[in-house]
Structures are given as C-alpha cells and as structure tokens.
Amino acid sequence: MFSVQTYQSRRSTLQKQVSSGVLLFLGNIENPINFEHNTYPFRQDSTFLYYFGIPAPYLAAIIDIDNDKTIIFGNELSIDDIVWTGQQESLKDKSLKCGVQETRPFAQLASYLQQAKKSDRTIHYLPPYQSSNKLLLGELLQVNPKEINPSVPFIKAVVAQRSIKENQEIAEIEKALAVSTEMHLLAMRTAQVSIQERHIAAAIQHYAYDHNCNFAYPPIVTVHGEILHNAYQQNFLKEGDMILNDSGAETAMGYAADLTRTFPVSGRFTTRQRDLYNVVLKAFEGARERLKPGVQFKDVHLLSARHLVEGLVDVGLMKGDPEEAVQAHAHTLFFQCGLGHMMGLDVHDMEDLGEQYVGYTEQEPKDTSTFGLKSLRLGRELQTGFVLTVEPGIYIIPELIDRWKKENKLSQFINYDLLESYRDFGGIRIEDNFLITNDGFRLLGPELIKSVEDIENYRTNHVQ
Amino acid sequence: MFSVQTYQSRRSTLQKQVSSGVLLFLGNIENPINFEHNTYPFRQDSTFLYYFGIPAPYLAAIIDIDNDKTIIFGNELSIDDIVWTGQQESLKDKSLKCGVQETRPFAQLASYLQQAKKSDRTIHYLPPYQSSNKLLLGELLQVNPKEINPSVPFIKAVVAQRSIKENQEIAEIEKALAVSTEMHLLAMRTAQVSIQERHIAAAIQHYAYDHNCNFAYPPIVTVHGEILHNAYQQNFLKEGDMILNDSGAETAMGYAADLTRTFPVSGRFTTRQRDLYNVVLKAFEGARERLKPGVQFKDVHLLSARHLVEGLVDVGLMKGDPEEAVQAHAHTLFFQCGLGHMMGLDVHDMEDLGEQYVGYTEQEPKDTSTFGLKSLRLGRELQTGFVLTVEPGIYIIPELIDRWKKENKLSQFINYDLLESYRDFGGIRIEDNFLITNDGFRLLGPELIKSVEDIENYRTNHVQ
C-alpha cells in the first residue's frame, strides 16, 4: 500500500470534486469457478484500490460527502474463519492504513444507503462490471439490476484523478515493466521449433509469479498474431513461423504493464517478414515521436496508419495516395484496431468506467461506427501524466480479405492479387508503454530490443 | 470430448429419470477480472460438460422432455468476432459432436421458456453459483434473483448419474493424477531453505500447464499447513519447517485430481514431526482399508478420527479412552475438517448442486451443527463407481487451542500443557484419491511416495 496520506489526499480531492451526496465504492469478491468455494484468484476493484488500497474481498466503502464521513463496510473474522484461513490483520487495522477510522459490519451498508435515499440524498456509484456487484447494487438500492444508473459526475471525477499518474504510480508501472521485459526476453529464449505455444506462456507466467507478479491480462502467445485476441495456445511452432507475444505483468499493488514483441521462431525473419516488420516499426516510431501534451491521440493513430500505408505501398500490398487511403480507411484491412489505450491499475485503464469518459470527452466523442476507429480506445487530447500504450500492427486476416475482395472494396488502394500470396502471413505488433511529459514523452521501463537486427542477434546468441 | 453416443446416452437416462417438463442447462461465461473484457480463464460448468461436452462460453441448452427435443442456444460468430478471435468451428458443428441437431440464437431462449411457462410446464434448473447465471435466470424466468428455486428432482437425477463414474471418466481422472503425481515430486525437489512458498506453486503450475492441464483448484503450498485454506504463499522456507502441498491438476476435459503430501524442508523430519506424521499415516491407512460399497463414509471418518486419537494418546497430546474421546468430538481440536469428498468433474464433485444431495441422502442427513462433522462433505453409504478423496490430518491451530483451553474444554481428553509446546508445530495432511469397486477400493493414479522413509530418501537424493 501507499502511505496513509496518499489515500486521504486522493479521497479529499474526489470529495471536493463531486461536492454532495454519498459516494459508494464496491470492492470485488472471490469469484466462483465451478462451485462457490472454488474461486479464481482474487483481484480487488481498481478504483477501490486507488482510494482505499485494501486488497481484500467482500468490502465496500462510502464517502458521505454531506456529513464528511468515510466508512469501510466489511466483516471481522470469526473463529471459524480463522480455522480455515488463519489469523489475519483485522479490518480495523487494514482500514487505518488507508486513513479510515470507522468500520462497520457489511450488513449495515444497506440500511445506511436506504437512510440516505429517504433523505433524498444522491447515492453516486460507478458502473458494475462483475455480476456479483450488479446483484449487490440491485439489493442495496432496491432496484432491478437492469435499472442500475451509474453517476456521471462520480465517473468523471474518478477518471480525472486516475488519468494523471502520480510519481509513485509510475514507479509501480515501471516495476511491472521491469518484470515484463524479462518475460519477453525469456519468451525469445524459450521459443523453438516443435514446442507448443503454451510452453512459452507457462514459462513466462512462472517468471512473473516468481517475481511477485501476476499476468495483467491473459497473455497472447501465438503463431497466429493476426488473431487479435487469441487465447488458443496449442499450436506447435514451426520453422518460418513468427511468434507474437503480447503479455505483461501486474505488480502486487495492481499496476499493469503491456508489451508486445514479434519474433521469428527460426532465429531469422524471412524477407517478407522483415519487410513488414520494418513497416510496423516505422509506424511505431512515427507515432511515438508525435506524443506530447495537446496532441489528439486520434491524430497519432491516423499518422501511424499513414506510415503503415506508405510501407505497404512500398511492399506492393497497397497502392495509390497514402493520405487518401487512410481517409478512406483502406488501412483497416491490415490494421483493424486502435493504436493504443490508457494504462495504470488496469491494463486498459478505467475501461470499466466507460471509454467515452476515459479515452474521449464530450467535445471529442468516439466514432462508434467506422471500422477501425470504433476499436480505438483512446482518441482524446493527451495531457502530462497520462500513461498509454503505442501498438501499431499489421494483421493478415484471410476471412476479412475474402470479404473485402468479394465486394472489390477499396480496390483502388489494395493490391488483392499480391495479397493472396500473403494469406498465411500472420500478424506483427510492436508495443511499448509511455508517459506523457511536459515536453513530450518518456519510455517507461527498460528498453526492450525491437529492431530486426537486435532480435535476430538475441535469438541467435541464446537459442541456436 | 467423449463420443457422440456418450452424451446422447447420458441425456437419455436423465430425460427418463425426470420424466416431464423442460430441463434448462446454463453454461458459464467468461468472468471479468477488473473490467468486462479482461477475463479469467474460461471454465465450462461441469454439468453442462457432462451432458453436452462443449467447452465454450455463452451457451445454454434445454431438454424439452414433453416434446422430446434437445436444443443448444448460442450465437454463431460474426465477422467482427472472427477479426478478434479467429475462425472457429461453428456452434452447429460443436453441437453435432454431442449429438444435438438443433441450435438457435441465444436470444430465443427466453421466449422458449416463457412459452413453456405459459403452458404450465415445469422448467427445471440447477442452483446457479456464478452471479452471471443468477442474473440470467432472473431475466429468463422473470423472477427476482432471490426467488430462484432450483428443481430437486433435476438435482437428484444429475447427482445419481454423475456419482457413478464411467470407465472413460476414471481414465481422465487418472490422467489428471499422473500429472499431479509429477507435480508433487517436483515440489519435493524444488523446496529448499530460503525460497518462498510461491516458487514451488509457480513451478508446479508450470509443469501442469506444460502437460495440457490447469490447476483443479487454487493450490495450498504452505509452511503453515494448519491453516486449512491457505492462499498465502509469501513465507520463506526455513530449516525445520514442513511444507504441506495440496494441489491437483485438471485435464483439458475438466476432470480433477486432488493430492496432498507433507514433507520436511530440510530433508529429514524432526522426531516430533515424524511421530505425528506416522499418526496421520496410520489414520489414512485405517480409513483406506475400510473403503467398500455399503459402508457409510461418516463411519470411515470416525474410524480415522479414532486412529488419530490413539496416535495422539501415544504421543501424549491426548489422554483417556479413544472411543469416548471421538464420541465427545475431542479429536476436532486436531482434526477440524472432514475425511474426504466426492471427486470428478469438480474437485469437490457436484458441490454446486448441494452437499445434502451429493454427500448425504434424506435417510442419512448431514450433521450441520457439530464442529468437525459440519465440515464433512461426504457421509453417505458408498457405492461401486464413486470416486473420492481420503485426507486425514493433524492441524495445530493456536487460536483454537487458546479458545478451548480458556474454557478448559474436554480437558479429560486433551493434555493442554504438552500441547503448549506444539503451538508452532503446523499441520500435516496425507491425501489420495480412490475408486470404490465391487469388492473394496482401488487407488487411482500412480502410487505417490508417502512413508517417512520414502520421502526422506527422495528429498535426500534429489536436493541435498
């Protein structure tokens, strides 16, 4: 946990911002896998962590702004609990560590809220993402779970605070990145012909766990990098394959890292692989150099797309004027997703609070209909203190090509004939994490090799 | 998956058993960790697996007994889905593999059930354990989630079938045990002074994952074996500690193993450790030899408790007549939990369906108030084809001792003075998995070393 003052000061800022009513924070529970008592690893809600820091299940908290009261609701251990789970720090003591003096049994939360409701005070709450909290909110507020109506002022105040990272938060993210960088080098050393993708995932998970971290998200470790969210890890590596490894650690305090590297199984890229890899690298570098306060991330995304198109024209897979191609969204046949997203206590930071508040503003709303842009999680103007990912890629998706080709879609920009010979190419992504600084950006964490030469040399020196 | 015939025949048996109405099966979803799209590893509901075998999220099925119709409800992939998750086998094809011809979009499930409800037909469903299915049931049946009322005839029919394991299921359990046995040997080789508990857990998880398995449950790997459900793994191993390792693999098809071994960090047990270890081993062997059809498992539990008391009297920690001590539940100061439980597709098999139906019968109800017996998950008469665990233990829990001692509880059986000097002793458990056969029992999986001599020799040969 951070210092008592950290949590007190964060809550005090929030309280001033929302100005009246009761702020309700729901912690997470231990979620059942296949029966109630067989549970997934516990992960506290990130906003609860941000304002209270206690990584324990079955807690809730309120900040009663009108009465200037902060209370944590939860149950102290019974002797039966102690037999099963061992003696633990009391809730009282845990609460003192985040500067909260008052704790009450969980069962008293409902009546507290009902009381406030009766006095016509507003109960502010955030959008629940776990079903258990949807059910709980329904019970606490005596409404149908479908009528849950999160508080926009509360959301906006939380987003405003959590978007600007404190130095101690940046240090935590860099801890996650130090571990993640080693995970990626280990993956490069582990990969070899005829092992399964899951072997690599298992090895890097082992490394993360050994270094007091978990995965920040289910890792993508695949020879089919073109499948954007690929959980399948049963393929065997063969000569000529590339591995796309998108994985990052989460520190014990909950801060994430999110890195992607793509490298050849056989130690050397083929000519085609090298050429497209360098196209992605150029798009990555172009985007990175553009990062600074005041720039719209949507423009960085489109700039990166333009670099991709220029490279794809050089290779012969696209044609025509790159600027016009990007305006026509022709690049989305190769780059279907967004350039990046906010990162912090969540790998997609605050995604539970709503992309329209985190990655966009009312003045800069999201384009929710255009293929490509509708998957761009971050579009707004950048500010000093933002932490984000930059992750351009090229993904050759046969089903999408077939669909576009059938419609002869944007054929003025796409060389469908040559593209046919790339059907089995796969996908390439390069991803690092950056802090927006007053005068530009800073790469977070150690520098992780990413040029063709560095990767080939590393693979050659460590495997063959 | 098993053969088409397997699932058809299981469903046909079930259908005959319940005889009328609509049987509703809800599959599991991908559960959010910290926001909707960051999800825990998917695990299909075990009953859904048993009757339909499809390990994919967002499915439901019905067996409409009155109309002799079986339908799987779920959605085929859209082009957007394919971009993100890759081309996959269609729901239609997956359904054919379990012998179901008819599939419909998920959205049609509600109206199908409403229609049946209007015709006053009974909709049978099982107790939901994931909150998402509590919410879904509420919506589908248009009832408050609190008014959910599972079908006892459906539960009983499922329990009757799943309790008697088929040969192919036993083979799967033995696959899980083959991997688990190696995990336990690896743990013994990995443990050494000054590493953290979590290093061992990470190593055995790596092994499981490398062998196409997951953990069947969160592993307990601890120097505080007296804490029965100990998720904490940050302690450093020291000379003189014992490690209690309770961990088991789950195969890709979902079958579990559940093994526990306790071994000394330093390669040799101390005299006190060896003595109590042998007490537990004798209680284990005594219980095992008693396993056969027709025997009440509650009696096996009490027999095992009696062996424990006899051993504890020999050591001097208990006194008086062992039989009387067990009748007075004096052993529960050392053995607070149950001797074992059913095992299969769940590590506590069918625990979601209710212990009163799985581990007990109406004629043999559970004792839900007596400390010790209230934690015995299985009490009923054993039948050929049951698969269960046997796992006696001795757990020295300081908080519990203090409580009993203050009340001078059962002091005719407890030697509290000597016990004080054991306060930091820890805990020991030995656990294997057995099949009940016509004439007794069969140990499932490979034999895993458990005598003091074998463990000390193995530790000596592989570590020091």
From TrEMBL, chains A, B:
It catalyses: Release of any N-terminal amino acid, including proline, that is linked to proline, even from a dipeptide or tripeptide. One of its GO terms (biological process) is proteolysis. The keyword Cytoplasm does not apply. PANTHER family: XAA-PRO AMINOPEPTIDASE 3. One of its GO terms (cellular component) is cytosol. The keyword Hydrolase applies. Belongs to the peptidase M24B family. GO terms for molecular function: manganese ion binding; metalloaminopeptidase activity. Its cofactor is Mn(2+). Residues 2-134 form the Aminopeptidase P N-terminal domain. Its EC number is 3.4.11.9. It comes from Sphingobacterium paucimobilis HER1398. CDD domains: Prolidase (cd01087). InterPro entries: Aminopep_P_N, Creatin/AminoP/Spt16_N, Creatinase/aminopeptidase-like, Pept_M24, X-Pro_dipept-like. This is Xaa-Pro aminopeptidase. Pfam families: AMP_N, Peptidase_M24. Keywords: Hydrolase, Manganese, Metal-binding.
